[in-house]
Write a structure and sequence with these properties.
Length: about 260
Amino acid sequence: MNQVIPDFLIVGAAKSGTTSLIAGLKQHPDIYTPGVELNYFSHFYNKGVKWYSSQFLHPEKVQGEKSTSYLYETSCHQRIFDHNPGIKLIILLREPFKRAFSNWTMRYNQSRLLKQAHLFNGRNQPKIENIGFSHLFNYYVSCPSATIKREEPLDIFERGMYIDQIQHLRGIFPSEQLLILISERYFNHPAETLRKVSRFLNIGDFPENCHAWKRKTEYPVKLDEAVVRQIRNFYKPFNERLFEFLGGEIEEWRT
């Protein structure tokens, strides 16, 4: 029987260190991964399994890819399972306020926010009048539609509700096929995190001094502390549910 590929996926969360992690994995001699996010199960499923399989060129290695849409787009979870019921999933979780602000900053710096807001306003009322981080958050919390809240650019805030996404995965995959990592611990102790990954994937240790590649982001605005508290308080009940699921608080997320 042919090997069902890939063997693993880094599924998210976006802006939680997944790019650094895949860069570290590429340095392992027993791992092969394509150079880009394929987003096959979420956005390009119509390309077909033959196209997807053709992206993995080394069947003698442990093969995987990184697409952060796979965690948030819960509709693709069953597709992933149907493709390979034994696949292993790696999840990185960053404190949700910092993740949201980093996500907003990336889209701002790439000039994507204006385009996303323009497309959003063509479909919805009331219109987004201000794409500033705090203004966008206020629009998000005042929006009565759960469906609209998932649209870009409002999804910036929706993506931080990790527990809902993880519980949806757990309704399909057994717990032993999920590795949940905390981004702040990865940033501070990359070698320790890579050891967890190597054991999860049943491969040898990573090369010595195989440290994470880190990109420093310049933030275009400085947020008022009241705004920071407001958004962190919004995420608090979701975090508490996550802590209960994980069996303990994430100390690095204390404020």
